[in-house]
Amino acid sequence: MTTPRRIYRLSQAIHQRQEDIIIALDHIHDQHNLSAVIRTADAAGFGKVLWVPDFKVPNELNPEVSRGAERWVDLKVVKDLKAELKQLKEKGFKIAATHMARRAVDFRSIDWTQPWVVVFGNEHRGCEDAIAEMADENIFLPMLGFVQSLNISVAAAVTLYEIQRQRQEKGMYDKTASKEQVERLYKEWELDKNKIDINELYTRKTGDIPDMEEDYQDGRVNLKYLQKKLEAAGLSL
Amino acid sequence: MTTPRRIYRLSQAIHQRQEDIIIALDHIHDQHNLSAVIRTADAAGFGKVLWVPDFKVPNELNPEVSRGAERWVDLKVVKDLKAELKQLKEKGFKIAATHMARRAVDFRSIDWTQPWVVVFGNEHRGCEDAIAEMADENIFLPMLGFVQSLNISVAAAVTLYEIQRQRQEKGMYDKTASKEQVERLYKEWELDKNKIDINELYTRKTGDIPDMEEDYQDGRVNLKYLQKKLEAAGLSL
Questions:
Q1: What is the pLDDT of residues A38-91, one digit of tens each?
Q2: By the number of CB atoms within 10 A of the CB, which of A145, A179, B36, B237 ranks highest?
């Protein structure tokens, strides 16, 4: 059964999701890396990952690594990344590819508060040349030691948390998500099912039927009412 | 054979090493995580890792993940981390443990330009309570999604690159290392052997014997002379 804490977290996560950051994995073949990136994306508040598989698509991700994050992140398997990126460019996204080209800039010099697709390349070959060329920016992470590359899941984590840092500083995690986004995520995440769970719980504890109309207010979760219901049910967040 | 580029990188890495940041891994049992942390530590410029193994110590690290970084990072297997940390405290280090306690603060609120030991806990159990309690600070990474924890190698990478960011902003990677540090790292990294390689190369190409006295200047690698020699040998960095 869904716990109150879980529901509370979900309703928070919905509003914190940064829909204008998309992660693209260009021919990643290590399932461990894929799972780790999905988990980090969820943690940093990014809900969309495009993935061009390098070999065959596995039936499921490594649950030990992803910790179930794939339920909350929209993973789209893509065949033609170039075409996909072109479409996203037309929608106003800029493309940053982690690629060690002459024109590459320090990843921290980018203004990540804008809409970006961030592309990470294959574990050995890096990004495809065509992708690096069509990207608005090529980026690199400063490396001050002897090893000249970072693990993909590490490079992605450092980059995603730099994006998170810049957006947190600008208060971008505090804003309310659009009604459309809330409703879509509710559906995707099967929150309606969770809502029934908590109401059942309430009814079982109090004998009353909760006012389900009040669960939403202006298209977002009514946290105050949720809390009131939980308290009435003898539960706390 | 050691390439000129490799030697150049080594001499840079020596001076960029931040000796007053130590990473401690409290009962890490996944070799993949250990190797990834060592590789990230090297990349961010940190040369010391303490490790309390959770099970038996493997004979060697996963070379696919560490990419040979263990040669450049001083990995010390520790039995009694508490005693080790006590000693480091006496030497002026402060201790930060990644631990979800009530007193935990956002990892970015710490002044990482000071000498710190950063402790990461076990994959499942986190840090030992005794370690978290003796730490000057408990720290956490902001998590805005649904998954409530990050992979250890990811959490470490994000933290180490925050330390790197703060130190880079303060110009701490530009300063010259002490003569003692240079000499010790030269020895540890067997740079003397590399030096012979490059001189052999020079001699083979030019027929001359290089002036090996000029290789060092004030206890650090004489990059200008190195470059001159390389150019004479028909090589470029």
A1: 999 999 999 999 988 876 555 555 555 555 666 678 888 888 999 999 999 999
A2: B36
pLDDT digits (tens, 9 = 90+) for B30-70: 888 888 999 999 999 999 999 888 765 555 555 555 556 66
Strand, helix or coil for residue B187: helix
DSSP code of B122?
B
3-state secondary structure of B236: coil
Kindly determine whether residue B43 and residue A147, on different chains, have CB atoms separated by under 8 Å. Answer: yes
Decide: A51 and A81 in contact? Cβ < 8 Å.
no
More confident residue, A117 or B231: A117
Closest residue in B to A32 (Cα) is B32
Residues of B whose CB is below 8 A from A68: 146-147
What number is the ipTM of this complex? 0.76
User: How deeply is B29 buried, as exposed, middle or buried, from its count of CB atoms within 10 A (0-12, 13-18, 19+)?
Assistant: middle
Measured between CA atoms, the residue of chain B closest to residue A46 is B145
Q: For chain A, how big is the Rg over CA atoms in Å?
A: 20
The answer on pLDDT for A137 being more than 70 is yes
Tokens of B3: 């390439």
Gyration radius from chain B CA atoms: 20
- pTM (two decimals): 0.77
Q: Which two tokens stand for residue B231?
A: 């150019």
Judging by beta carbons within 10 Å of its beta carbon (0-12, 13-18, 19+), is residue A174 exposed, middle or buried?
exposed
Alpha carbon of B23 to those of A5, A158, A206, A207: distances in Å?
A: 33, 17, 51, 54
Amino acid at the residue A208: D
Chain A nearest CA to B17, separation (Å) = 8
Sequence-separated (6 or more) residues with CB below 8 Å from residue B49: B22, B23, B24, B25, B37, B38, B41, B73, B74, B75, B76
- Minimum distance, in Å, between the CA of residue B158 and any CA atom of chain A: 5
Contact A222, A216 (CB under 8 A): yes
CB contacts under 8 A, B 141-180 vs A, are 141-151, 153-154, 157-158, 161-162, 164-165, 168, 173
Give dist(CA B186, CA A154) in Å, integer: 28
Judged on CB neighbours under 10 Å (0-12, 13-18, 19+), B95 is buried
Contact (CB, 8 A) for B45 and B16: yes
Residue A202 near residue A232, CB atoms below 8 Å: yes
B219: Cβ contacts below 8 Å, ≥ 6 apart: B179, B182, B183
